[in-house]
Amino acid sequence: MSQRDRIADTALGLAIGLGIALLVLVWAVPGFRDPADSKNGQQHNEQKADGDEKPVQPPSFWKTYTTPSDTYAQWIAAFSALFSVCVSTWAVWLVRNTLVVNQRATAAAEDAVATTREMGELETRAYLAVTGGTAVYYGSSDPQVFIRVRNAGNSPAFDVTAHFQNSKDHTAG
C-alpha cells in the first residue's frame, strides 16, 4: 500500500471517529442534549428549595427523544442515514481500489507497448554478417581489403560503409 493510501485511510478514520465522539458527547452530556433543560432544572431546584417534596420534573431526555410511538420515522431515518453512510464509505473504498488497479494496468500496458516496440525494431533491423573477404597488399601502396557481406535481417541495408585505419609505423624505435 502506498503512503498516499495510508494518509487517506487515516483521515477517513479520524473523521468517522470525530463524528462518533461528537454524537456520544451530545447524547451523554445534558448541556449538549437539551440547552433549554437548564431552565427546567433551575425551576425544579427552586421548587425543591421552596419545600415541595415532589416537585414537577420535566420529562427526561430518554423519554423525550425515545418514545417509540412518536419517533418511529426519525429512528428509521437515522438508521437509514447510518446505513447509507456505511454503503457510501464502502463504495468510495471500492472506487479508490479500482483506480489503484487501473493505474497498475496502465503501467503494465505501457511496459508491454515499449517491449513490443523494441521487439519490432529488432525484428526489422538489417543484420549484416561477414561471409568472407580478402586483403591484397602490393608493397608500396596501401593494402586493399575486399569484404563479402550478407544481409541476415528482414530489412535491406543501405549505405553500408566500413572504415579501416592504416598504421604504417609498426617499428619500435
Structure report:
With 173 residues, the protein is mainly alpha-helical. Helices cover 61% and strands 10% of the residues. It has five helices and two strands. It has a two-stranded antiparallel ribbon. β1 and β2 form a beta hairpin. The longest helix has 57 residues. The mean pLDDT is 78.
Q: Low-confidence parts lasting 5 or more residues at pLDDT below 50? A: none
Could you give a short account of the major beta sheet? 2 strands, antiparallel
Shape: rod-shaped
Q: Pairing-aware structural class of the strands and helices? A: mainly alpha
Radius of gyration: 44 Å
Number of helices: 5
Helix content: 55-70%
Main-sheet strand order equals 1-2
Q: Termini separation (Å)?
A: 70 Å
Strand content: 5-15%
User: Using DSSP, what is the number of strands?
Assistant: 2
Order of helices and strands: HHHHHEE
Averaging pLDDT over every residue, what do you get?
78
What topology emerges from the helices and strands here?
Elements: H1 3-28, H2 30-33, H3 37-49, H4 61-65, H5 68-124, E1 128-136, E2 144-151
Antiparallel strand pairs: 1-2
Summarize the structure.
The chain is mainly alpha-helical. It has helices at residues 3-28, 30-33, 37-49, 61-65, 68-124, and strands spanning 128-136, 144-151.
Provide key terms for this protein.
single chain, 5 helices, mainly alpha, 61% helix, 2 strands, two-stranded antiparallel ribbon, 173 residues
